[in-house]
Specification:
single chain, about 450 residues, alpha/beta, Rossmann fold, Dihydrodipicolinate Reductase, domain 2, Alpha-Beta Plaits, 3 domains, 6-stranded parallel β-sheet, 6-stranded mixed β-sheet, 15 helices, binds NADPH dihydro-nicotinamide-adenine-dinucleotide phosphate, binds L-homoserine
């Protein structure tokens, strides 16, 4: 790769993840180039259905139904393998490596089965095989294990690492929906594997657990040694009984280092419902990592789906671009963006922050007080989300009102609070705590 030209991507497969990757690469092109040091562009796409590729990319790049033409193309710098499976995909990845191309893949099945041979070939050829998207979708768990936690002796990793089965278990528990119906919905939403038996029988989670174990403990990938039990034998009755005992049932991938070896297993598990991981619902994934120095850390986010997975694929592409083209002594820019690409965006003063508020006021217990307060809030364009009025204590003459507002500008809240505190019926200062829902 030369350091002025864009990085040219050969994209194999433009289905759920390939489509998401194309969309996000295009939408965030400018920001991605500022981080990577140069543009990253899809120059060649292969898919069984070229029309699928055409519908998304128009005439922006070359399109073929022959993936081997892409891996052989001298103009392609990085091959992104998103067709899945481990027959053609294996051949394509090995061919790409032979041709001296870096590879980014989301294909955990391929790596869990043939990772040792693929990594050895890549090592010999001096190319990168990056696979963040292969484990836990959009959660950067590989980077966390390989880089962020690299000071630690990892003791164990346990996680919800299959979105489809977590979605099925959540929907069955919360809505009482039958298994087959929820599985169909997971397929419609693009979470499930091409063959969903891989999800429901635990194989997909075991592929991922195998990769996690290798990275956590520095062992070769050994999928054939994993214990695998899916959710197909789980009965709704047991989900209910577990609930009555204060537990949730989740399909976990678990790998633990012991004196005498490594546990590597996937199966349904009862987890106390007060644990954070027990409350991870839908297609979300969560991974707990226990390191000897840091203790237990938790990583949570979307484990499947087009753009969430694309997020991890593209992060790998940026890593590849940086590794191949930027200053080798300073691979990742200190501030994430290339030094000459930093923008001078202003940090906003707190008065311009946008947040919701919890407000507690002590007021005279008499008619009309609440109307005055709501009028002041409305005058500042602040709407009320919820309200609680405590019953006045006998003989006290005052009572507490607790208000939750919708999101507003801090300066409007300040103005409203000033006016409220000036009301004769309001006693003392208004207690305010900012409220963030932190939803998606
Ligand atoms: P899709 O089936 O949606 O997309 C795969 C695409 O590749 C399809 O368009 C398919 O065409 C095409 N394709 C398959 N084989 C060939 C071939 N030999 N030549 C040309 N085109 C081919 O799969 P996903 O996008 O869901 O998954 C892709 C990979 O990403 C898999 O390895 C999967 O495990 C992994 N992954 C998926 C996630 C998700 O949320 N979906 C999350 C994380 C990883 P056709 O449909 O006609 O066969
Ligand atoms: N089928 C997988 C899942 C896709 O449901 O988690 C993400 O790897």
């Amino acid at each position: 790769m030369n350091s002025i030209q864009p990085v040219n991507i050969g994209l194999l497969g433009i289905g759920t993840v390939g489509g998401g990757t194309y969309t996000v690469l295009t939408r965030n092109a400018e920001e991605i180039a500022r981080r990577a040091g140069r543009p990253i562009q899809v120059s060649f796409i292969a898919d069984r259905d070229p029309e699928r590729a055409r519908a998304l990319s128009g005439n922006a790049c070359r399109i073929t139904d022959d993936p081997f033409a892409v891996v052989a193309d001298p103009a392609v710098d990085v091959v992104v393998e998103l067709i899945g499976g481990y027959t053609t995909a294996r051949e394509l990845v090995m061919r790409a490596i032979e041709n001296g191309k870096h590879v980014v893949t989301a294909n955990k099945a391929l790596l869990a089965l043939y990772g040792n041979e693929i990594f050895a070939a890549a090592q010999q050829k001096g190319v990168i095989v990056a696979f963040e998207a292969a484990v836990a979708g959009g959660i950067p768990i590989i980077k966390a294990l390989r880089e962020g936690l690299s000071a630690n002796r990892i003791e164990w990793v346990a996680g919800i690492i299959n979105g489809t089965t977590n979605f099925i278990l959540s929907e069955m528990r919360e809505k009482g929906l039958p298994f087959a119906e929820v599985l169909k919905e997971a397929q419609r939403l693009g979470y499930a594997e091409a063959d969903p038996t891989f999800d429901i029988e635990g194989m997909d989670a075991a592929h991922k657990a195998t990769l996690i174990a290798a990275i956590a403990f520095g062992i070769p990938v050994q999928f054939d040694k994993a214990y695998v039990e899916g959710i197909t034998k789980l009965e709704a009755l047991d989900i209910q009984y577990a609930g009555q005992l204060g537990y949730r049932i989740k399909l976990l991938g678990i790998t633990r280092r012991r004196q005498d070896g490594v546990e590597l297993r996937v199966h349904p598990v009862l987890i106390p419902e007060k644990r954070l991981i027990a409350n991870v619902e839908g297609a979300m994934n969560a991974v707990l990592v226990k390191g000897d120095a840091v203790g237990v850390t938790l990583y949570h986010g979307k484990g499947a789906g087009a753009e969430a997975t694309a997020s991890a694929v593209i992060a790998d592409l940026i890593d590849v671009a940086r590794a191949a083209t930027t200053d080798p002594d300073n691979r990742v820019p200190h501030l994430a963006f290339q030094p000459d690409q930093l923008h001078d965006l202003a940090i906003l003063p707190i008065e311009d922050a946008e947040t919701a508020f919890y407000l507690r006021l002590t007021v005279d217990d008499k008619a009309g007080v609440l109307a005055d307060i709501t009028r002041i809030l409305a005058g500042e364009n602040i709407s009320i989300d919820a309200m609680l009025q405590k019953e006045a204590e006998e003989g006290k003459g005052t009572t507490d009102i607790i208000l939750l507002t919708h999101i507003c500008r801090e300066k409007h809240a300040n103005a409203a609070i000033g006016k409220i505190e000036a009301l004769p019926s309001v006693k003392g200062a208004v207690t305010r705590i900012r409220l963030e829902t932190l939803g998606g």
